[in-house]
Design a protein that fits this description.
This protein is of the alpha+beta class. It contains 16 helices and 14 strands.
Length: 431
């Protein structure tokens, strides 16, 4: 093999009688480099999107949710919560009351989901209350824990709705950053929360409404949460929905998020009939399935670049065989076997592919590192995340390199076979 490799490298370095052969060889290397780099960058982006979305979804919300299949919610939930906290692999549990509401401030309004929580428990199953950028979630603590009332946010006064007497009557609320921008609200402002679960009066169904004080604004970076989620105290949510001592969901955190389905079935069985447990994988199955399909389609489309480069390798080697016919005949007359001639041109094609593949891997991982270091901003309302994530993997390099070298090897079969079929007497007859 050292003899064949020596001849192959000499052929690559030698000056061409036909300059077009050298140009096509250079184009082949550039084509392989571009194809491999594109594949690495595309796979890094799709892996980054999947990884980032998974981390934000799983980090911001619970792993398992338990709800009643029928009825308006879970009553007498305290002994049930205490019992389910003892389930193996459950690390935390938190009760909550969800409800769809309309949140407005002046002429601005927007729909959202408000969740009544016990802050100390909610922080153990989700990170949204720990990602507050303005204000504080301390006001959501029970009134007795802080001596009564809601603390006045820094920089607030009676003019903007923050006063000692007012705060004792207005319950606190924490909203997402995108929702705050939609409403034009900031910490210390009052918002009106309207529930569609109204009261029946002689004049018909009248929606229930309650004024809340914005005490905190969180930013998770996930548009769905930042634009529609809001948190208040469990007792205040129960008053808003006229549901005393009722919750709609019990949220759980488990020690291994990839076993959430298994733990969910245990929780459901221990809760008894009438309950249903869902996990983060079920809730986001379609999203991750779409990301996987996008990754496969992107790989196939960008692999066509490598196929085009392989065609260039085929053309370059075919023209080189035609150019080196006399050299091949001389070598064979000296005793070089046909198999050795075939390996010379196989190695030559693989060298072109190897050089392009190595350069492409370096370029692809270099650009992926730059993309991850200098975050490119995205429109969160369109892409659900506010920057373009890159997550290159070593396994991707193995797959891309194997595909690149494999396609190039297939492209060298025809020209190397043609070179091996050269007849020395016929090739040298007219020389």
């Amino acid at each position: 093999m050292r003899f064949e490799l020596f001849i192959a490298t000499r052929y690559l370095r030698a000056k061409r009688r036909q300059a077009v052969v050298g140009v096509i060889t250079a184009i082949s290397v550039i084509g392989v480099t571009a194809g491999v780099a594109s594949l690495i960058i595309a796979l890094a982006i799709t892996n980054g999107m999947r990884k980032d979305l998974q981390e934000r979804l799983v980090g911001s919300t619970s792993h398992v949710n338990l709800m009643r299949v029928e009825g308006d919610g879970i009553r007498d939930w305290r002994p049930l919560l205490a019992r389910l906290r003892t389930v193996p692999h459950v690390t935390a549990a938190s009760p909550g009351l969800w409800g769809e509401v309309l949140i407005s401030r002046g002429a601005r309004s927007g729909g959202g989901l408000i969740k009544g929580v016990i802050p100390a428990d909610e922080k153990t199953v989700g990170d949204l209350l720990q990602s507050i950028k303005e204000g504080s979630a301390a006001a959501l603590e029970p009134a007795g824990a802080s001596g009564g009332g809601v603390p006045c946010p820094a920089g607030s006064n009676a003019a903007n709705g923050c006063g000692a007497a007012v705060l004792k009557e207005i319950p606190p609320i924490v909203i997402g950053q995108d929702m705050a921008e939609t409403l034009g609200a900031k910490v210390g402002d009052g918002v009106l929360v309207t529930s569609p679960q109204g009261e029946l009066t002689p004049l018909g169904l009248v929606p229930r409404y309650q004024r809340f004080l914005v005490v905190g604004i969180f930013k998770s970076g996930f548009y769905q949460y930042d634009s529609s989620y809001a948190f208040t105290r469990l007792v205040d949510a129960q008053k808003l929905f006229s549901e005393p001592d009722l919750i709609s969901v019990i949220s759980f955190k488990v020690d291994d998020l990839y076993h959430a389905d298994r733990v969910g079935r245990v929780i459901e069985a221990m809760a008894g009939p009438g309950f249903q447990a869902t996990n983060w994988m079920e809730q986001n199955r379609e999203l991750f399935r779409a990301l996987k399909l996008e990754q496969i389609v992107t790989f196939i489309i960008l692999a066509l670049i490598v196929c085009v480069a392989a065609l260039n390798i085929l053309i370059a080697l075919t023209m080189m065989v035609m150019e080196k016919t006399r050299d091949i005949a001389v070598l064979m007359s000296f005793g070089v076997r046909a198999e050795q001639v075939r390996r010379i041109f196989l190695l030559q094609g693989l060298l072109i592919s190897l050089i392009g593949t190595v350069l492409g891997l370096i370029l692809g991982y270099g650009l992926s590192w730059l993309g991850g270091h200098y975050r490119f901003p995205l429109d969160a309302s369109v892409y659900s995340i506010d920057y373009l994530p890159f997550a290159p993997r070593v396994w991707d390099a193995v797959i891309v390199a194997a595909v690149s070298l494999g396609v190039s090897l297939i492209a060298t079969l025809y020209p190397s076979g043609s070179a091996a079929k050269v007849l020395p007497a016929e090739a040298l007859r007219y020389e």
